[in-house]
Amino acid sequence: MTAGLRPPPGTAESATPAIRLEGVSRWYGNVVAVNKISFSVGPGITGLLGPNGAGKSTILHMIAGFLKPSGGSVEVLGSPAWMNREMHRRTGLVPEREAVYPFLTGYEFVLLNARLHGLPDPRAAARRAIRLVDMEQAQDRETGGYSKGMKQRMKLAAALVHDPPLLLLDEPFSGADPAQRLRMMALLQEMAAAGRTIVFSSHILEEVERLSDNVLVIVAGRLAASGDFHAIRRLMTDHPHTFALRSSDDRRLGAALVADPSVIGVELTDGGLSVRTSDFGAFALAAPRVAHDNRVTIFEILPADRSLESVFSYLVNR
Amino acid sequence: MNGAIFVLTLRQLLGKRRAFFMVALAALPVLAAVIFRLADAEMSPQRWTADDLFEGLIVTILLPLITLVFGTTALGMEIEDGTVVYLLAKPLRRFDVIGAKLAAAWLPSAVLLVLSTLISTSLVLGGDNSSMILGFTIAVVVGSLAYCSVFMAASVFTSHSLIGGLIYVFLWEGVMTQLFAGTRYVSVRQYTLGVADLIADTSRRVFEAELNGIAALVLMAVVSAAAIALAVRRLSRFEMSTSA
Question: Does B2 lie at the interface with A, CB-CB under 8 angstroms?
Fold first, then answer.
């Protein structure tokens, strides 16, 4: 698996981030898919985490130069991504769509990609990339007969064939069995350790937790949180949270909740209750129980901290 | 032109079923010619070849159908199934992508049409009328390039290019050009007939196109170039659908 990994060309210019998004929006007609997102990504593995339809693919497509931002700027390796075909010399893309050319063998498919990149020795490059993803045993079979996980690995080989310093992967582990998943993860970690920038999207929390140094949580087209995964988790669990509640009897529910150890403060407000908690997990369990015990019906329970609301709803609803 | 894309596209286009269907289509004029010979009809072979075989069958049906299938499929199929990403995520000039795709669509179209035209017209006309056979054959070669260019451009703009192409061929070229003389200037069929008329040395009673040959050639070149330019421009700004 380690054979053939070389330090990526172009990592010396790490002063500028590999990817920079500034106030990027993208809308389709009246629908806003991505809303004023800004972030920078440097070497290492970055996970775009969010539920299906959150806008992860739209963001990856804009980074890959396949969607024009409706607003803001997307820069990849120092240049705008849109209509920048030269960028593809230094980026590799594993698209989400499963389709490959079914009549080509795996080797022919990777070789095609090597030829399209104009590599000096496309055959050697194809063999090296196939060896990296551990698909030598199936390289002479037509890709039409591959499982989804095998296609994913050949697609990864095709994206790696020109040894790019930046790799973009859209839901790369979908369809891969656990062993394949582990192998792919190990490979990506090796590549990141060699100084490459890797960005992948996933709606699976565990994949991102396991692989990413850096996480961008995307919910409803907005960047809900970013940074180290464990810091985000801590933020969610340790940070005191305020919830707004509406119920059939706010005063009674407030009195009952204040007795619960997860609650550190209750305040009656105009439209209901404002409850502060130091442990949202325990509170999420306590609130319905307390309401039930006191025969109070909760109509609404919302995190009042807007910046964390979407992260919360995503992480907690899983 | 990019050789790897050209070879890839030929392999895509010449799948067993499609190739069989296209060859069967191309065999129709030959079959018609054999029947004409066997039937020993009283009609002049020249007139039958010009009116029924060439204009009625080859130029009206065979040429647009074969080029429609190859022209819209060569790139349109990749756009449809998403594999076009493997071509576009490369440092390639979009002109080279379109050029290779067009060449790969044109080559099998032209080969089938040339064989079909040459064999069927020769069967009916024998060794005589070589300028007519030559004129008709050259006309289908250039006509197929124009059709392929237009249909390929359509496939970059819409996923309904096959339906759009059928409407263009049968409603616009088939019906409208009969009703309104001016529409012949935007009809690849009329350009093809004009080119055939330019080269074939026939009397007016046998075959006469509605468009002047030189005008037809110029219009054909302009339309093909415009279609290619539009396709390249569109592909340069191509936005990938994010739906899986």
Answer: yes
For residue B242, tell me if it sits in a domain.
Answer: no
Rounded to whole angstroms, the Cα distance separating A75 from A87 reads: 10
Is residue B95 within 8 angstroms of chain A, CB to CB? no
Note the pTM of the prediction, 2 decimals. Answer: 0.84
Cβ-based burial of B20 (10 A; exposed 0-12, middle 13-18, buried ≥19)? exposed
pLDDT score, position B69: 97
Identify residues of A whose CB sits under 8 angstroms from chain B CBs: 33, 57-58, 61, 64, 66-68, 83, 85-89, 91, 93, 95-101, 103-104, 112-113, 115-118, 158
The answer to whether residue A28 is domain-embedded is yes
Cβ proximity of A92 and A160 under 8 Å? yes
Quick check: B139 pLDDT over 90?
yes
Quick check: B86 contacting A, CB < 8 Å? yes
* Range name among A238-252, B10-24, B225-239 with the lowest pLDDT average: A238-252
| B88: chain A residues, CB-CB within 8 Å | 66
- Asked whether A184 and A173 are in contact (CB, 8 A), the reply is yes
Here the CATH number for the domain that contains residue A193 is: 3.40.50.300
Average pLDDT along chain A: 87
Neighbours of A271 (CB within 10 A): 11
Confidence of residue A2 (pLDDT cuts 50, 70, 90): very low
Beta-carbon separation of A67 and B239 below 8 A = yes
Q: Which tokens go with A89?
A: 């010399």
CA distances from A1 to A162, A202, A297 (A): 17, 23, 57
Beta strands in chain B (DSSP E): none
- Residue B85 located in a structural domain: yes
Residue A140 resides in a domain: yes
Task: Give A-chain residues touching B87 at CB under 8 angstroms.
Answer: 116
Same domain, A49 and A107: yes
Residues A262 and A179 reside in one and the same domain:
no
Lowest mean pLDDT among A89-103, A209-223, A302-316, B9-23: A302-316
Shortest Cα distance, chain B CAs vs residue A258, angstroms: 47
Range of the domain at A285: 239-317
* CA–CA gap between residue A160 and residue A131 (Å, rounded): 11
- pLDDT tens for A27-44 read 998 899 999 999 999 999
Structural domain count, chain A? 2
- Cβ distance A86 to B2 less than 8 Å, yes or no, reads no
- Give A178: exposed, middle or buried? Use CB within 10 Å, 0-12, 13-18, 19+: exposed
